[in-house]
Amino acid sequence: MSKNNEDISKDLVHMDIYAIVESTQELHFGNVKDLNINRVELISVPKDGAIIQKPYMSPTKVRGVARRALLWELARLGDKKVMSCGIPATCGVCDLCKLYGALVTTQKGKKPKRSDTETQEAEETETEGSVASRVIQAGGVAIQELSPAIKQRLSSPCYIINGKIGQYDVEEIKKLLKERGIKGDALNRLSQPMPYEKEYVTGLFPIYWHAYYLEKVKGNDSKMSEPQMVAFSFIETLKRIGAGHPKGAEIKEGKISEKPQPLVVVDIYTRPLGKRPIISISELDEKTALEAFAKKALIVNGTNTNDKASKTNHITIKDEGGFFVFERFIGENAEDFLRQLAGGLATSSEMLTPKQ
Ligand SMILES: [Zn+2]
């Protein structure tokens, strides 16, 4: 291995986030439109020889939200490379595509394809390929078995007519809209109350993110380091989850080491020594699930670390040579760490900021 390659490989770490989140109100996770009802997505889960249905915060949808959150933030920070990126047409070259992956089917600025008879095409050949994503979202199956609630909604027209605010008859509203150039079907749609039905669910959703081979040091022409991008997209995605409105979930509080704190664990590592705090999809009981999460959160390298974790909420492991190979942030400390990392502030991480 060349000197250069050695330097790069030493700077790569894995980062896992485990959390139980709860919807901050009823949410809609769009599935199919059934006549005038917007259905939510459910998942079938085997349980004691039967099949039960649970609400599902689909990781593919979480992923889209996470990607958008980062795209906009990198643009806000003045990242020129993301300006030609987007969703679903990814560019394949920006920091976001490098981390979240891309499918590239056309090359920007390419010249029209030549006919087969012409052979000078080396520089103009269409580039096709893909960049593998290094961030994986999983979980999302609710703990409780819940039937979605169908709610009747009414979209009421509201306009200011002749300086007055309130309900007006349809003809008056139509007159106003016509003056604005609206005609045809749109005129009826925009002037009359429109009833519709929508399904909503609430609940607790265990979610897991696995990000691998992250470059821990920020590149010179990058606005965020890769671990920062993962932390930022995780934190921001929580606020924006759900199709339509309302939106939002938050990390559930529970007891870890007998102390009420957010149920979240973050591992930074080169050696996978932490027990994964994952909840079985067939688990239906909230108390059992929360206890299982808290118990697994404390197990590192096959040992219950409760004594140490209850003081610091930070478990570290070194290799034979004295280098850190694993660290786990638990509960309150994990949430603080994620927010500091997302915000580009200094953290107490041993793996990300090696001491001199
Ligand atoms: Zn891109």
Key words describing this protein structure:
356 residues; alpha+beta; 2 domains; seven-stranded antiparallel sheet; four-stranded mixed sheet; 27% helix; 31% strand
Structure description:
Helix content is 27%, strand content 31%. By secondary structure, the protein is α+β, with helices and mostly antiparallel strands. Strand 10 and strand 11 (164-166) form a beta hairpin. The radius of gyration is 25 Å and the shape is globular. It starts with a helix and ends in a 14-residue tail after the last helix. The model is unreliable at 109-125 (pLDDT under 50). Zinc ion (ZN) binds next to helix 3.
Question: Could you provide a short overview of the structure?
Answer:
This protein is α+β, with helices and mostly antiparallel strands and about 350 residues long. It is built from nine helices and 21 strands. Strands 1, 8, 13, 14, 17, 20 and 21 form a seven-stranded antiparallel sheet that branches. Strands 2-3-12-9 form a four-stranded mixed sheet, with no helix packed on it. The protein has a two-stranded antiparallel sheet with strand order 4-5.
